Amino acid sequence: MTDNEREQEGCVFEIALAVPKWGENRGDEREGAHCVDVLVDELRKNGLIVERDDGLQNEFIKLAASDEVIGRAAAALQFRKPTYLGMDLPFEWEEAEAFIRLPDGSLFSWCERFHCYNHIIYGIVNTAESVVVLKSDCKEEHWKPGESLLQKLEAMGVVKEVFPLHDEKKRKQLLKSWAMNWSDVTHQPIDDICAYYGMKIATYFTFLGMYTRWLLFPALLGLVVQLMDFGLLQFAVLPFFFMSFISWVVLFFQFWKRKNAAISARLQIYNSASLECEYRSMKTEPSLSRFPSEHMRKQNIDRMKEKANFQREEWFTWLLRVRNDAFIILSIICLQLPFELAYAHLYEDLGADVLKFGLTAVYLLVIQYFTRMGGKVAVKLIKYEKFDTAENKANSLVYKVFGVYFMQSYIGVFYHALLHRNITTLRQVLIQRLVISEVIENLLENAIPYLSYRFKKYRAVRNKGKRDKGSSTGKSRFTRVEKEYLKPAYNASIGQEIEDGLFDDFLELVLQFGMIMMFACAFPLAFAFAAMNNITEIRADALKLLAMMRRPTPRAEETIGAWLNIFQFLIVMSICTNSALLVCMYDREGNWNLSPGLAAILVMEHVLLFIKFGFSSIVPEEPAWVRAARMKNATQAEQVCTRQLLKSLYGDEKCFEELRSQESKKDA
C-alpha cells in the first residue's frame, strides 16, 4: 500500500527509523532472530502501525498510531489537558470525551504525539527472564532483561536515526498559506504553525512578525532623518531621533511580553504539562519523630556534611564558569584583536570604494569562520560545567556564544565609532556590513542545506551504481521517506549536539538588532535595511523549514528565553553608544569639555535609562483577560480539590451540604 493510499484511509506515518540494508546476508534465522525483525515485531505488539520501506542505501521503518495507542501513552505520561469543566486534568483514555479537542478535531497535538511515540518505542524492554539473542550482520548481541531494545540497537549501530516525518497534506497547505503568501508581508498563520511545528517555533515567528511590523516606524523616521536636510536644526534632529527609537524599542518589548502571554494562553491547548517532574525521583525523608535522639544527632551530622558538600560544589561550579568565560574572552582578545585592528587600518588606507567593499566581504567571510570556531569552543567548554536544570544549561550556552559573537562582530565597529571617531567611515562600514552580512547569511542559511541535500542524493546514487555494476536496474528513484532522511536536520551550525535550529535564527536577529540600535545616530537608515531584510527573512525561514529541512523535533517552550535578556542588554548598550556618538558629532575637536551641549546629552542619557526601566511598571506584562483566566482556573482547581477532600472524609451528603453552605455565604 502506498503512502497516498494510507493517507486517504486516515493513517499518516509520523516517525521513521533508519536501519542499514542487509540484503541477502541476514544470517541463519534458525539460530536466532534478526534484530530488525525483532524490532518490527515488538513495535507491532505495542499497537503501532509499521511499514518497511526500502531505499537506495538504507531501509526505513515507518510508524503510525491510532488515537487509542497515543491516548494510553499520554495517560501513562500523565499529560494534563484542558477539559470542558474549564480546568486542566490528567488525561485518561477511558474519559477521553471529557477533554477538549483541537480545532482540527484531534485529541493530541503534534508535540504531544511525538512525546508519546518516544515513550512507546523507547519503552520497549525485554520482559522475559532470559536474554534474547539478536543477530546482526553475522554477529550476535544479547538483549538483557529490562533493557531498552531501541537503545540497544542504537548502541549497536543498527538503528542509525529516529526522525519525524512531514505530513505532506499539511506541509503543502502551509507552503500555500505561509511561505508563498505575500498578500500581507507580516501575516502568518500562527495557530497552524504551532499545530505543525510546536510552541517554540510558533513563538519565534510570532516575535519575528511583530518585530518586523514595529520596525516600520523607526524605518520611516530614519528615512526622513537621513534624507532630509533640516539646516540649523540638524543637531536637534538626531537627539530627537535618539529619544524616539529608544522609547519605541522599550515599548516594543513591553508589548511583546503582553503578546507572548496572550499567545501562550491561547495556544496552551497544543501544549500539555506532564505531572512527572525531576523531584519525583527524590526520596521523601522520614519523619524525625520516629527516631530516637541518637538517630536524630546522626541525621543532623549527615545534613551538615551534605550542606558542606553542596557549598563546595556550588563554589567549584562558579569558579569553573569564571575560568571558561575568562578563557573565551582572552582568546578573542589575543587572536582576533590584531586582525580587527589590521582590517580597520587597511580600510582607512584604501582609496577606492570597490576595494573597500571587497575587503569588507573577505573580512566578513573570515569573521564567519572565527565566530563559528569560537561558538564550538563555547559548546565544548560548557560540557564540563554542572547545571541544576537543562534550561540553565541552555541559557548559559546562549550567553557564552552571544558573548563570543558580540565581541567578534562589533570590535571593528567600536574602533571606527569611538576611537577613530570618523562618522563618514563608520556609515560606510555599517552600510557594507548590513548589506554584505545579510546577503552572506541568507546564502549560507539557504544554499548550504540545499547543496548538502543534493550532494547526499548524488552520493547515494553513485554508491548504488557501484554495488549494482553490470546489472540493469534502470534509473534510481528515491522514496519520500528517504528524501526526508537525506535532508539536513534542523540543528545549530556551531554544533550538532544543539538540536535547536532556532539558535542560529535568534543569533542572527540579535546581531542585526545590535548593529542597527547601537549605531543608529550615525546611520538612521539602518532600520529601513533591517525592515526589508526581515520581510524576506520570514518567508525564507518558512521555506527553509517546509522544503529544505527535516521536520524539527517539537519543543514546548513558550517564551524566547535568555534571548530576551540579551535584547534588554543591547538596549542599555545602545543608550550608551549613541550618547557617545552624539558627543563625537558635537565635540568634533575632541576637547571633551562639559559644555551645555554635552551636559544636555548626558542628561538625555540618564532620562532614557529612566524610560528604559520605568516603562516596565507602566505597561503591564500580562493582559487582564490572561490574569483573570489564570485566577479562574486556580479557583476551580481549589474547589475540585475541596470537593474530593470532603467526599473522602464525610461522604457525598456531607460534601454537598458543605458546598451549599459555602455558596450561601458568598451570596450573602
From TrEMBL:
GO terms for molecular function: chloride channel activity. The keyword Transmembrane helix applies. The chain crosses the membrane at residues 204-225, 231-256, 326-345, 357-375, 396-418, 509-530, 560-582, 594-615. InterPro entries: Anoctamin (IPR007632), Anoctamin_TM (IPR049452). GO terms for cellular component: membrane. Pfam families: Anoctamin. The keyword Cell membrane does not apply. It is found in: Membrane. It is a multi-pass membrane protein. Keywords: Membrane, Transmembrane, Transmembrane helix. Residues 193-631 form the Anoctamin transmembrane domain. This is Anoctamin transmembrane domain-containing protein.
